[in-house]
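User: quick one, fold this
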Amino acid sequence: TQLSTSAVRQFRRQMQMVFQDPLACLNPLMKVGTSITEPLLIHELASPAQAKVQVEKMLERVGLTPVADYYQRYPADLSGGQQQRVAIARALITQPQLLICDEPVSMLDASVQARVLALMRVLKEEFNLTYLFITHDLSVARFLCNRIAVMNAGQIVECGSTNEIFNHPQHAYTQKLLQAAPELVLNPFDE
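Assistant:
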C-alpha cells in the first residue's frame, strides 16, 4: 500500500515492540530517561519538559523507583528485570494500541519473570493494550493470553481461546505440546 509519511509515522506510534534481550535494544550510551524520552520527541508527542514529566510517571508506573535514580542510570547498570521494565516503559510511552512482545521474559529468572508478567498483565488492562505475545513457554501463554495461536513449522495449526487450547485441543500438534508439559494443568503464576 501507499501510505504517506505522516500515516506511516502514526501507524508506527500505535505499534511498539518489546524484545527478548532488553540490553541489546537499549542504547548503552544513553541514560534510561533519555532513552524513554526519545520516542516522544521523534513522534512529536511532547516538548522536552513535558516528556520528562511523562517519563518520570512511566518509570514509576513500571516500578522503577526512586525515579530520579533510574532516570540517570545507564542500561548496563541495571539488572535484567530492570532493563526489561525500561524496555516496556519505552514501548508504552507513545501510548500504542498494540505491543508486540517477542519472548520478553525468557531471559529472566523465574521470580523476576513472574513479577514482570504480573506487571504486563496489569499494564494490559490499565492501558487497554493488545499484546501479540510470541513465546515457546506454554505457562507464560496461559498466564497472559486471552487467545492463543499454535504454530508448527511456521504455520498456524490451531487458534482459539486460552481455555479451548488448554482444555480441548483439536490439532494433534497442540495435543502433543500439552502432553509434553503435564505440569500445565495448574497455572504456576496463579496464587
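User: anything notable?
Assistant: The two ends are 47 Å apart (CA to CA).
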